[in-house]
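Researcher: We are triaging several targets before committing to wet-lab work. For this one, the compound of interest is guanosine-5'-triphosphate. I'm pasting the protein sequence and the ligand SMILES. What I need is the predicted three-dimensional arrangement of the protein with the ligand bound, expressed as structure tokens, so it can go straight into our comparison scripts without reformatting.
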Amino acid sequence: MQTVKMVITGPFASGKTEFIRSISEIEVVSTERDIKTPAEQVKDQTTVAMDFGRITVDDDLVLYLFGTPGQRRFDFMWEILAEGMLGFVVMVDSSKPETFREAKSILETFRAYAPTPYVVAANKQDHPDAWSPEDLRIALRIEEGVKLLPCVAREKESVKNVLLELLYSILEEMES
Amino acid sequence: MALKGNLRNFSTTQLLNLINLAQKSGALTIYEGIPTGEMDALGEPKYSPGKDRASVFFRGGKLVHAAMGEQDGNLASVLHKSGKLNDRQATVIRERAANTGDKALALLLIQANYVTQADIVTSVRQHTLDIVYDLLTWDNGPFLFDDSKTPPEDRITVPIELENVIIEGSRRMKELERLNEELPNLDLALKFPEDPGDKFKGIQLSVEEWRVVSFVNPKNSIRQIAKANNMNDLEIRRIVYGLLQAGLVELIKPPGMDDKARQAMGARRRKEAPQIKKTVVNKLIDRIRTL
Ligand SMILES: Nc1nc2c(ncn2[C@@H]2O[C@H](COP(=O)(O)OP(=O)(O)OP(=O)(O)O)[C@@H](O)[C@H]2O)c(=O)[nH]1
Ligand SMILES: [Mg+2]
């Protein structure tokens, strides 16, 4: 059986868990938030500090979705998660401009880990304070060739669209 | 669609850049911040908008008008400030023309040979720029961009290209920290945009800025450009940041940088993409479509 994976990353509370939860066929295995002392962190985080979802295609193929922990103190997990990924999604909370800089920095970090395709999801478009995808593209300085997609992580159709767009980009890259 | 936040996280310079690139029309208002007692996502205190501190108006990505909170921005005051009217003239006009709109007043003043049309345009332009340059140095306060707002009917508007304003804004940007964050990596190189359009036309660069521009080449790292021009990190950052914000240059990795980074990272190689077949991706696509 073949397993492939995609990584869902982004700043704290950008909607990564929600995104995976909306589409995963299994109950999302989620991060414990109240790991407090450094000692506890070191002991536990490799196993718990991420979200984990699954989509079964058939007997031979399974797609795993990994959500990175949003807090920077789990940074070292990222590289491990990035290993062998097919592509990644950067979730941005469009209603919180104070997180845009962090989102961009996470994007750049992941890009350095692996030369895979990625898309940016302008999440929480249903929020009254949400910046539009066009404004976000300029604010985050996302190159024109990179897809920046409107997203409401609570809605399955929206999540499907983001994953499909990422897959289309992966396909295009293979064909080029 | 909302465009709101706090200058602390998204600076006036960045906002002007956004408005310029997206060719927006509307009004950007900056407010006094009233602490709400809550925290934002970064754990910083949240502020809700209080009184207007300043409003800046745009049309099609150009700056057209600005007003500073309580300040009286009528034409008589603007012309007085720029020295086109003396104290006595200004007082008389303010009294007599208290109920005359700026546009009507402008016509009267031109006909009466007090000032020329060019005087008016220059003075209004300078007034707008003074306000905008001032608020470029503000580093805190809630802002809101409202794309349905237009300048007050009776005001004279003078369209001003934002590129020069942005460059000037970056010149005035004092916060070293922010520059470091915006441009952390001096080992990157600069290139001109594929399609600079007429961005360079009519641009007013300082000698220092031209020096940097003259070294723009994907082979020269920013650090090398600084060295060649005897500039320190802060100076080069400030200049490059301004040029970047104005869209005159873009960042690019110089050749060999990846190799160096890879060597530096030692065992931390860049991960190769997994060898996956197209049929696998197509299967994933089909499956997700049916979910
Ligand atoms: N309105 C709205 N709220 C959303 C959306 N997506 C997520 N949220 C909410 O945003 C909050 C954070 O979502 P999470 O999915 O926990 O975010 P996360 O990125 O997993 O957060 P960390 O794991 O802590 O970094 C939750 O209250 C969600 O219900 C959305 O599309 N619209
Ligand atoms: Mg989460």
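Researcher: Any quick observations?
Model: The two ends of chain B are 30 Å apart (CA to CA).
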